[in-house]
Write a structure and sequence with these properties.
Family: Belongs to the MCM family.
EC number: 3.6.4.12
GO biological process, one term: mitotic DNA replication
Strand order of the largest sheet: 3-7-8-10-9
Helix content: 25-40%
Number of strands: 28
Distance between the termini: 107 Å
Subcellular location: Nucleus
Shape: elongated
Domain MCM C-terminal AAA(+) ATPase: 345-552
Radius of gyration: 37 Å
Structural class: alpha/beta
Strand content: 15-25%
Largest sheet: 5 strands, mixed, barrel
Length: 800
């Protein structure tokens, strides 16, 4: 056979050429309802250097030509180059500048389709859908760095120097099959001319099934997605997205690296010395090396699946409420205006968000304020960042709907991650550094807090977490960053997420006789990072139990009849209202400074046992929590300023969340077993009991904490009143006078002589406790009947 007959003639795709002509007519001729050629106008804008993608609505294609739409969906991968070439020719025709035309010949352009009606799950992507146009949904879990990819290569022959242009590249480096010079026989030695070649941005991301689509007991499926052009850096780990593109087959580079080595080594070492050629020598000898391929997804359009205004998601952007209001439709503006003017907006939002949970109104309000959040602040000079997200922890008995709160928030919030503390590691909660299977580079795998960026991370069984895992989220809960220094990777990642945690008390049941810190297995640094602590106790109350049973039965009937409970607002409306309210940046009014300071001092004094002991729960972080809660309340009412009313409501909520459910009983009988105290007051007790008072029953000397608090405040207020009345002439109140005054105050409550002696003994022991343990009262003169004054630094709980 001679050389001329060996020339292979180029085969043209007739269907592709027909598709190119039909797609060209669609771009030039399609008009919207206003009679405008929208796609031709948008195609002309691709002349700009930063633009390279035209997004087309499939509904418009279907209305223009059903056959064209069918061909695109069934043979997308085959027809895609022809559609891109048609778009490029239209852009070149619309350009008048000769230099721009020359640049556009080298510039690759792309076509993206959206508004595909049918959406497929990741598990439904099989080899039958290879090459067709499909729409999938999932969550982004990993993003790689952006790399340049050769679109059209220009090569120079190393033998004769002839230049071969426009060699198409697809997922791999492709040289010309032979030199374009008929006299040259070179087929392998070519040099890439980088200046004459065209490049396009290329990024690989990994998408994973969402929890809603995941079958029970199954591991989430992952797919590698290839994006190009304008779509690179368009998504972040944690985003839930809809992707439109084609399923493709690519070589599995990780498997092709060293196939059969493991089988060969096991065969050689496991059986000892074998004869050459005997038995299985490895997969490489079977030809499997050439058959290792895997599925990937080539995306042409990516859109967010979260609540949007005008088709755009503003969760990552800093936009004012005025600009966002202008971008809304008339119907959206009407709904949000009605919601913002609702005087019972908090109550209606709570009822609409938690229709299946009875009671616990404070907890519902706290979670609602967590969704609104406070205002994040940053100092330009020092770089100090103050978080705006609110962290909430629920502690309570079993079957008190803790997990139900977490599940409701996970389903409602667009960027919410649900995880369990016992089954999560430090790397799984923050981030991990893993080696890529193909490039063997170290990349960052996002953890739960990174995936929940600008959202909520729900952590159940928080108390079951190991101590070193709890330490790993210290930085994420306060600074809202994750610092990684592993395998040569040094990075500081954002974790701007609110944490909603649920924990069980030690022993399973909440012990009312012990404070909160002794009921939960958490360290003090972790507890101080939670803005709100709520305690849920399973109490036996006939009315409450009846209401809870009625609500549960109603929920069962509703689910059985496949109906939904009617609420004032839909979840979509609530999501849009929260997104709109978060655009407000409330500022403190001038008269709110004193209110913040007095509220903080009052809560800190109430939290400490006395004037000298430190506060274990109320720290400076809780002052910041008070500010965040006040800002969230202002956002709830779409207000631009924080008022005193907002501070008062936030103080009540914070006080309810940090108060102990029930204090331990005060045992006055054995409170003074200390030898020094007994020896010191032995003479005083003998002198005060000269009347030979009968011995009091020890069981009656054990009083409730509330009664002790009430009695001590009565005595302290009486001393303060005398001090204010006498002024500089005040020399204290005698202990016997204080006891007599107290007995006169409760004279109407004494029914017998036994009650009189009991109350007298209780009052005397309370005074001794205030002197020696709480150190609130000070003895000016020691002796049989000492004079007592109140410590000048002590502040009564209700005093402002």
């Amino acid at each position: 056979m001679d050389g001329g007959s060996s020339t292979v003639q180029r085969v043209e795709d007739v269907d592709g050429i027909r598709m190119q002509a039909e797609f060209t007519r669609f771009i030039k001729e399609f008009k919207n309802d206003a009679g405008e050629t929208v796609y031709l106008t948008e195609a002309i804008e691709l002349v700009q250097p930063e633009r390279n993608t035209l997004h087309v609505d499939m509904e418009h294609v279907n209305s223009h030509s059903a056959s064209l739409a069918s061909s695109i969906q069934l043979q997308f991968y085959r027809m895609y180059p022809f559609m891109c070439e048609a778009l490029q020719l239209i852009v070149i025709e619309s350009c008048e500048d000769a230099s721009d035309k020359l640049r556009l010949h080298k510039k690759p352009v792309f076509v993206g389709f959206f508004n595909i009606l049918q959406r497929h799950k990741l598990r439904e992507l099989t080899s039958a859908k290879i090459g067709s146009l499909v729409r999938i949904a999932g969550q982004i879990v990993r993003t790689h760095s952006v790399h340049p990819e050769i679109a059209l290569g220009t090569f120079t022959c190393a033998d004769c120097g002839v230049v071969t242009k426009n060699v198409e590249q697809e997922f791999k480096y492709t040289q010309p099959t032979k030199c374009s010079n008929a006299q040259c026989a070179n087929r392998t030695r070519f040099d890439l001319n980088i200046d004459e070649s065209s490049f396009v941005d290329f990024q690989k991301i990994r998408i994973q099934e969402t929890q809603a689509e995941l079958p029970r007991g199954a591991i989430p499926r992952c797919f590698d997605v290839v994006v190009r052009g304008e779509m690179v850096e368009g998504v972040q780990p944690g985003d839930r997205c809809d992707l439109v593109g084609s399923l493709i087959v690519i070589p599995d580079v990780a498997q092709l690296a060293t196939p059969g080595v493991r089988a060969e080594s096991n065969n050689k070492t496991g059986r000892g010395n074998q004869e050459a050629g005997a038995g299985l020598t490895g997969l490489k000898s079977l030809g499997v090396r050439d058959l290792n391929h895997r599925l990937a997804f080539l995306a042409c359009h990516i859109s967010s699946s979260t609540a949007t205004f005008g088709g755009k998601d503003f969760s990552h952007e800093d936009i004012s409420h005025i600009d966002l209001w202008k971008q809304m439709t008339t119907d959206e503006q009407k709904i949000l205006k009605e919601m913002s003017e609702d005087k019972e907006i908090a109550r209606n939002l709570i009822d609409s968000l938690f229709p299946n949970i009875f009671g616990n109104e404070e907890i519902k309000l706290g979670i609602l304020l967590m969704l609104f959040g406070g205002v994040a602040k940053r100092s330009e000079s020092e770089g100090t960042t103050l978080r705006g997200d609110i962290n909430v922890c629920l502690v309570g008995d079993p079957s008190t709907s803790k997990s139900q709160f977490l599940k409701t928030v996970e389903e409602f919030c667009p960027r919410a991650i649900y995880t369990s503390g016992k089954a999560s590691s430090a790397a799984g909660l923050t981030a991990a550094v893993v080696k890529d299977e193909e490039s063997f580079e170290f990349v960052i795998e996002a953890g739960a807090l990174m995936l929940a960026d600008n959202g909520v991370c729900c952590i159940d069984e928080f108390d079951k977490m190991a101590v070193h895992d709890q330490v790993a989220i210290h930085e994420a809960m306060e600074q809202q960053t994750i610092s990684i220094t592993k395998a040569g990777v040094k990075a500081t990642l954002n974790a701007r997420a609110s944490i909603l945690a649920a924990a069980n008390p030690i022993g399973g049941r909440y012990d009312r006789s012990r404070p909160l810190r002794q009921n939960v297995a958490m360290t003090a640094p972790i507890m101080s990072r939670f803005d709100l602590f709520f305690v849920l106790i399973d109490e036996c109350n006939e009315g409450v139990d009846y209401s809870i049973a009625s609500r549960i039965l109603e929920n069962h009937r509703t689910l059985a009849s496949h109906t939904t409970k009617a609420t004032k607002y839909t979840k979509d409306d609530i999501q849009k209202y929260i997104m709109f309210a978060k655009c407000f940046k409330p500022k403190m009014a001038p008269d709110t400074g004193d209110a913040f300071k007095s509220a903080y001092v009052k809560m800190r004094m109430n939290d400490s046992a006395n004037a000298f002991s430190s506060s274990w729960r109320i720290t400076v972080r809780q002052l910041e929590s008070l500010i965040r809660l006040s800002e969230a309340l202002a956002r709830l009412h779409c207000s631009s300023h924080v008022t005193v009313a907002h501070i008062t409501q936030a103080t009540k909520l914070l006080s309810k969340s940090v108060v102990r459910v029930e204090q331990a009983d005060i045992d006055l009988d054995d409170s003074f077993d200390n030898d020094e105290v007994v020896e010191e007051n032995k003479e005083n007790e003998e002198n005060m009991e000269t009347d030979q008072d009968p011995k009091v029953d020890p069981s009656k000397l054990r009083i409730k904490y509330d009664l002790y608090k009430k009695l001590s405040e009565m005595l302290i207020r009486h001393c303060r009143a005398d001090e204010d009345k006498l002024g500089d002439d005040y020399n204290g109140v005698a202990q016997s006078s204080l006891v007599s005054w107290y007995l006169e105050m409760i004279e109407s409550e004494l029914d017998s002589e036994e009650d009189y002696h009991t109350q007298k003994s209780i009052c005397e022991r309370v005074i001794k406790r205030l002197i020696h343990e709480d150190k609130i009262l000070i003895e000016l003169e020691t002796g049989a009947d000492p004079s007592l004054v109140v410590h000048p630094n002590y502040v009564i709980g209700d005093e402002e």
